[in-house]
Specification:
This protein has 189 residues and is mostly helical. Helices cover 81% and strands 0% of the residues. It has 8 helices and no strands. The radius of gyration is 19 Å and the shape is globular. The model has no long low-confidence stretch (mean pLDDT 80).
Length: 189
């Protein structure tokens, strides 16, 4: 599942970056969301896979704090990017004639930057919440299932939900793979 998550999100980033037809605000935000999803899953899943392979449940204190910090950081950024994407769609639907004026590249970059700044500032409040919630006892099995659903399943499904059903992305991926095959850069195993 981890490889599907990374590969699917990487395909979106490559499609958006390589196809000039997709250089629009919606796809700019989608590529950013894909990047954040890769970072989000990469904060915990590799360590979890090592733990499963070695039959160990050990994590150092600094490793634990690092995972918590980066997980909260990327989860928050993910949420704010989804909010920015919702605003982008709102402008596209409610103000279609002014869309390109309102959602110009400067505004798009500013929205991503603001979402990053908000996440960094809210990060310190959420760390406090993590420490306070750890005092409440919960079922470890229920917590593990919820963690896997949030940390693995959702980022894995995002590429399918947000783009692979999208005609423009499909066409961009087809053009990308055709160019790669023509240039001989793809290696089929």
């Amino acid at each position: 599942m981890y490889l599907i998550t990374v590969f699917g999100n990487l395909l979106i980033i490559l499609a958006v970056g390589s196809d000039s037809h997709l250089h629009t605000p919606m796809y700019f935000f989608l590529a950013n969301l894909s990047f954040v999803d890769i970072c989000f899953t990469s904060t915990t899943i590799p360590k979890m896979l090592v733990n499963i392979q070695t039959q160990s449940k050990f994590i150092s204190y600094t490793g634990c704090i690092s995972q918590i910090c980066f997980s909260l950081l990327f989860a928050g950024w993910d949420d704010f990017l989804l909010a920015v994407m919702a605003y982008d769609r709102f402008v596209a639907i409610c103000h279609p004639l002014h869309y390109m004026v309102i959602m110009n590249p400067r505004v798009c970059g500013l929205l991503v930057l603001v979402s990053w700044i908000i996440i960094v500032s809210l990060f310190y409040c959420t760390v406090l919440g993590v420490y306070l919630s750890s005092a409440v006892t919960q079922s470890s099995h229920a917590s593990a299932v919820a963690s896997v659903m949030y940390m693995v399943i959702t980022p894995m499904l995002n590429p399918f939900i947000y783009s692979l059903r999208n005609k423009d992305i499909k066409e961009a991926l087809m053009r990308f793979f055709r160019r790669a095959v023509i240039k001989g850069t793809l290696c089929w195993w």
